């Protein structure tokens, strides 16, 4: 309930627990320890990478509390009556003030990978990789990290936790600054894997889209298609705008057709393939699914 905000107190650091983790170069970091209580502790590494638009807070918590709520807060020099929160396949805005009973009831709201507080020309985004309770009151961005309720599960959130959140200041709007792309990068970092044979001389990508407003969210095998070599792609418009974009593919596509979320073909949804590209049109936050039928492996050389 909202009265828990009246009993909060800051967790203070102990002397001698701040240390340099990585010194200079392409990465710099600092590490510190917080003793939350006699039974719980938090260690955190604050990481700044060259070329990265955000500061990461890699956190490890040993949590053994009762009826406690752990949050992190970031005051910002930003003034705005609205804050923006990501939801699945889009985002929405909620007030930063508590003027009505409805606002008081939303002292904490659901957020997916990011929330953002922006004024004209500048903003601050708080990204995370696994936490969903968020709020912005006035100019303070708050993210809920751990709870300790005793009903219906007396052991809820007890034990060791590891997670990362990040702070991203930006110029302009969150769309122009690439907040959505940065949140995806935090949640799905690139994986480097060894490959047999010599390194390829050119770069290769199975799919790419021409507009930053369109996100290719899913690539999977088709569930209901009778053909063996059929993929399903799910894309959505993330900026809240009307946009035309091209979907580029390096795969040997034989047929492309729009489908619904149950992967049923749209009889009027056949898409012409032009120079390994498909043209797609999106309205704000629209989700589109495609069925791509690939040529059998025996008919082409990768």
From TrEMBL:
GO terms classed as biological process: mannose metabolic process; oligosaccharide catabolic process
Name of this chain's protein: Mannosidase alpha class 2C member 1
MF-aspect GO terms: alpha-mannosidase activity; carbohydrate binding
Occurrences of domain Glycosyl hydrolase family 38 C-terminal (ranges): 7-154
Domain of life: Eukaryota
Domain Glycosyl hydrolases family 38 C-terminal: 213-290
InterPro entries: Gal_mutarotase_sf_dom, GH38_C, Glyco_hydro_38_C
Pfam families per the UniProt record, alphabetical: Glyco_hydro38C2, Glyco_hydro_38C
SUPFAM superfamilies recorded: Galactose mutarotase-like (SSF74650)
